[in-house]
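Step 1: inspect the first sequence and its tokens.
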Amino acid sequence: MILPIIAYGDPVLRKVGKNIDSEYPQLSQLLENMWETMYKAEGVGLAAPQIGKDIRLFIVDTVPFSQDEDLDDDERTFLATYKKVFINAEILKEEGEEWAFTEGCLSIPNIREDVYRNEKVTIEYLDENFKEHTEVLNGLAARVVQHEYDHIEGIMFTDKLSSLKKRLLKKKLENISKGIVDADYKMKFPNIK
């Protein structure tokens, strides 16, 4: 089932997510719905807060980035198969040079800005079977995971912009929270009763 994506301005997007366990109700159905919702919206990641759940859960599928001709063959091959569920994730380390990349967010349609992030990240998480993993990611995979991880920490990519950029985007962000935006997918707006 395709779920509405929560728009910028909803308080759930600012909450630090709670850990869940294997008894979380209907987790497999929730994951199925999240995949379907993400693909319908043409995203590469989706976090539970974006569908109204304040839990530490997000999914990523970097296949769309594997078409990027500017990447080397190894990174393209890796991105072509990187599809994961992250439960109770914790970033252990961010390292390497910060680099800019234009990011967008399903909760903030039609706004894309350069965001600086570290090139390498070490993350610990549970998969959908509650098996523990620790991974070191680089490049675009690291960036997608950092973006989605921010969501479970109550952080939006716009928080990482300069104060000038934030001021320039203020009206657009207010409009999104009021439902004054065109999106090609179902959304739920906080300021529409």
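Step 2: inspect the second sequence and its tokens, then contrast the two.
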Amino acid sequence: MKFITYLKQAASTALLALSAIGMLTMPMGTASAATPESTKATIVLVHGALADSSSWDGVISKLQADGYTAIAAPDPLRSLASDSDYVSDIVRNVHGPVVLVGHSYGGSIITNAATGADNVNALVYVAAYAPEAGESAFDLTGKFPGSILAEALAPPVALADGAHDLYLQQDEFRPVFAADVPEKQVKLLAATQRPVTDVALMGASGAPAWKSIPSWFVYGSADKVIPPAAHAFMAQRAGAKDTIVVKGAPHVVMISNPSVVADLIEKAAVATVK
């Protein structure tokens, strides 16, 4: 009992000391920690299916060099509803304005995660789905001809809950996803791909945030996952502020052309400063 009393007294003394130090060293008029130090938006990036947050490395390097704070959200890839809720939680805990960026299936997520988020100023779709209410990634993939994704998938992995994990066959990764990426890098991407469930790709979108939040689009003319015609359709439907088509770029346009993507994100951030 004496030992426990001693610990309590020691902890109380330490807290009082830290409090006093904080009071002495805090400048007069110091703002709350919740107050952003910069008017620049925080960039929250959401990766797509069969990828991970490292797919944003080149874009993040450029954003950081230009003074932006970037957060690469680890997309669970389990279901559209739960994935969107997860990203929404991340966005809600960012102090200050946010530019929400999604690649591929990540576009479906930002479309739903930004709904009702007061701090999201802009949406940037990077070779991404921008579904209308009731639409799924699966629906939009087949809306126009040109996708070769389905025939490149490996046999699905059955899960205990009845869903199935989907992977690309590793030797199909380059022609489908990353045709202009160096072969050595493609092998790493293929080996580290994260599976998405069929449930996630077939999940119906809720009310789309792009109807109330300004959007920007960028995609490659050689995208073999989402046909370029589908990208053009979605961008026009969303009333995109700007649409960039990168000639010859594949689905992972942010890997092969990170500066183009980063520049568009920064353009959206500057255009929506409030």
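Step 3: confirm your contrast with the notes below.
The chain has one domain: 42-271. Confidence is low (pLDDT under 50) at residues 1-37.
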